[in-house]
Amino acid sequence: MAGGRCGPRLTALLAAWVAAAAAAAEEEAVLEHIPLPAERSMVLPMTASNWTLVMEGEWMLKFYAPWCPSCQQTDSEWEAFAKNGELLHISVGKVDVIQEPGLSGRFFVTTLPAFFHAKDGIFRRYRGPGIYEDLQNYILEKKWQSVEPLTGWKSPASLTMSGMAGLFSISGKIWHLHNYFTVTLGIPAWCSYVFFIIATLIFGLLMGLVLVLISECFYMPFPRNSSDGPEQSRQSDEAHGAEQLQDAEDEKDDSNEDENKDSLGDDEEEKEDLGDEDEAEEEEEEDHLAAGVDEERSDSQKQGPLREAQEDVVGPEETTGGAPEQPRSTDSEVAEDTLRQRKSQHADKGP
């Protein structure tokens, strides 16, 4: 009796234990399939809409691409650096250049990964390794103070870099559109290129038309009278040409007058110099002639007594032989005539 009663109880206990074990196994299996909550990242993704947050406070930014192996190697170091951001009093962000080409153009990123430090709107390029210890020392020791900041047109907040951001964003959209045509729709690549060429030509023509319309709006057109317009323009051109010719002739006349005045002045100076030289020569000749006349007179005076003595000795018959003495008197007369002529010429030149 006792054995028969205990058998059913044991089987019931065994069944209950097996059911409890099966339930526990099912619960463990369910818990294994439930994903654990991911650890919250302290790195803030930056986009074109919220990038202005870096203009206030102190920030460190990382530019990366999902396909870049070097960027993937620094992900863990960057996450660890972001966890200690509260202790360092710094904010940490990252920018995906594939999703945000405009920001990569604003900062003019040419290599990946690229790191930037920002302090109250002043940006500096961090060129060290993306290792946690180096990043931490860069902030704690304020090594960023020894780095030249990006100022002027190089600053990401400048108008120039804003235009660069627009160009990069347009190129990114074109690239995405090309991928959509070739990958999603399966269109050949050359068809996509032809499409972009045609679109570029049409866009250029539209921009030219817009510029022409703007110029017509801002600049007043010339008056257009049906028949008077060409005649008036022709008459105005002729009058303008005549004025130009008259001005040219007046300038030539003025220049000729100046040249004539200069040449006359030079001629007068030369004449004065020549006159002075002629006067000096004439004076010298006059002096020589006067000296010759004086000598002849003195000779004649000396020979006078001799002639008288000879006349007394020879007699009246031989006095007729004094004819040879006449040429001397004629020479003196010629010299006196030449002196008078030169004096008259000098008097004529004087006025």
UniProtKB/TrEMBL annotation:
It holds the Pfam family Thioredoxin. This is Thioredoxin related transmembrane protein 4. InterPro entries: Thioredoxin-like_sf, Thioredoxin_CS, Thioredoxin_domain, TMX_domain-containing. The lineage of its organism: Eukaryota, Metazoa, Chordata, Craniata, Vertebrata. One of its GO terms (molecular function) is disulfide oxidoreductase activity. Residues 337-351 have a biased composition (Basic and acidic residues). Residues 1-24 form the signal peptide. GO terms for cellular component: endoplasmic reticulum membrane. Residues 226-351 are annotated as: Disordered. PANTHER family: DUMPY: SHORTER THAN WILD-TYPE, THIOREDOXIN-RELATED TRANSMEMBRANE PROTEIN 4. It is a single-pass type I membrane protein. It is found in: Endoplasmic reticulum membrane. Keywords: Disulfide bond, Electron transport, Endoplasmic reticulum, Membrane, Phosphoprotein, Redox-active center, Signal, Transmembrane, Transmembrane helix, Transport. The keyword Endoplasmic reticulum applies. Residues 246-287 have a biased composition (Acidic residues). Residues 56-139 form the Thioredoxin domain. The chain crosses the membrane at residues 193-214.
